[in-house]
């Protein structure tokens, strides 16, 4: 099976430099794209059916097509490398181990968008990725893949690396744009969408790292090749992974269309001895719990949605039978309460309040009334009641936890947490 | 934190040549200087260890960003320190995968061996302990960073070795 995202990645080996990367077929998509019409590239990516890999899964080419026609002013591509969703560690793999793939994807994408400036918005804690991306960008300049008149095509492009300083909300694309402008990273109202008015009020596309790493393969090899990578009706490959008490935690490039069971058993080696699967979060801390009966679902956004959750980042976290679900949810809510930007009241005040009630339950001082209020909270902080998707995301593990583990919540009222720590 | 610097007599310090050189380099990446604010604070912190009021005012004057606006940015981000920290900042991940695999007991171990709680610095100024949200290394949990280094699959024994290593280096 072709693995376009990870073909150059080998554990324990330094990432390819420019020469090695090029010898392995790298930068072919740039050579090809400069002979194409930009709009044809957008159509190609749209037809390929690549969904965004940041969690929302929106068709990438369609997202690009909302950028208005060039007016002579700047337009930007911004890569969201602010990976901070609890339980998610896939973009780290790509950026640390094959930085040229992201750079190539950005060049090809910028050509399609007729943009001459790209930023990588990188999580500050990813220090290895920072060093390797800077080296790859410098090599791309030295070899004429960045700068003026790339490959004699008349296409100019500069790419800059911005390292952030740790705030989950920067992963929200309009908050990310504010942060890149040097402001507090509060989200902006939409519309206008960034494609129309984004960075410094100019047309801007914000794409996830893994999304853009798919572009070189699609442009170089075409729609049929890309669609053939998936199983059955599903297209492409994606990075999926598992954390928690499994035998072989990690992340791997898998064909889209495998089931959760295949990922858990064939790739992650199943549960560790002495632990049973109680539930799992399918794609990060802001997704609803799924149960063992959902293991045979295909890891596809549509299929997961029907089961009441979201595929999100497709890195699953297993909750084992020796770990308290209430404690797990409290940990997640603590994360979201800490990372709320404070802009809108339901999130700023609702999340800490929720955290306090979960603290009380864990300590054995909670009441049935608290559980009732927790249920109400999932509505108060649901979609439509907050400025952005942070608080609604935070409510997903809580609302599904209250559905699947209500007995355990109620058992906490009299006795607190009975699990050993 | 919460310094009402505009109402006090605190004055900007002089930025060093190294700081100015790096800030000038960052300025070439953006069409507007406001965008350099966070990068400039990080540069200052790299050399000074933290961002004092005097440093914040210096960056504010140098980039022509109002002190209030820059303070808004400085206090927003987890990794900008507006209080002095020790020579080595330990960032212990306390998010879900690390929690499931025992980061609470690692935290207790740090508190026992170093005598500090979250947000505190050892008396010899060598270590500050801070919790950090998900470090994106969940398959190797529990994890932490010290400075720019990441340490994975942690145990209390491993932590003792790492601490000893840093002590011998300093």
Give descriptors for this structure:
heterodimer; A: 421 residues; alpha/beta; Rossmann fold; Ubiquitin-like (UB roll); de novo design (two linked rop proteins); 4-stranded parallel sheet; 8 strands; globular; B: 170 residues; alpha+beta; Glutaredoxin; 2 domains; 4-stranded mixed sheet; 4 strands
Could you characterize the architecture of this molecule?
- The complex is a heterodimer of chains A (421) and B (170).
- Chain A contains 17 helices and 8 strands.
- Chain A is α/β, with parallel strands linked by helices and 421 residues long.
- Chain A has 3 domains: 210 residues, NADH-ubiquinone oxidoreductase 51kDa subunit (Rossmann fold, 3-Layer(aba) Sandwich), CATH 3.40.50.11540; 91 residues, Ubiquitin-like (UB roll) (Roll); 91 residues, de novo design (two linked rop proteins) (Up-down Bundle), CATH 1.20.1440.
- The longest helix of chain A is centred in the C-terminal third of the chain and has 19 residues.
- Chain A is globular and about 75 Å long.
- With 170 residues, chain B is an alpha+beta fold.
- Chain B folds into 2 domains: 72 residues, no CATH class; 82 residues, Glutaredoxin.
- Helix content of chain B is 44%, strand content 11%.
- Chain B contains 7 helices and 4 strands.
- A 4-stranded mixed sheet of chain B has the order 2-1-3-4, with helices on one face.
- In chain B, α1 runs antiparallel to α2 and α2 packs antiparallel against α3.
- Chain B is elongated and about 50 Å long.
- The model of chain B has no long low-confidence stretch (mean pLDDT 95).
- The chains are: A alpha/beta (421), B alpha+beta (170).
- The interface between A and B is large, with 56 and 45 residues.
Present the secondary structure layout.
The complex is a heterodimer of chains A (about 425) and B (about 170).
Chain A: H1 18-23, H2 28-33, H3 38-48, H4 60-65, E1 76-81, H5 90-97, H6 99-113, E2 117-122, H7 127-142, E3 158-163, H8 173-180, E4 204-208, H9 209-213, H10 215-228, E5 237-243, E6 250-255, H11 260-267, E7 277-281, H12 301-306, E8 315-320, H13 325-339, H14 345-363, H15 368-380, H16 390-404, H17 406-415
Parallel strand pairs in A: 1-2, 1-4, 2-3, 5-8
Antiparallel strand pairs in A: 5-6, 7-8
Chain B: H1 17-27, H2 37-48, H3 53-63, H4 67-76, E1 88-93, H5 96-100, H6 103-114, E2 127-132, E3 144-146, E4 149-151, H7 156-169
Parallel strand pairs in B: 1-2
Antiparallel strand pairs in B: 1-3, 3-4
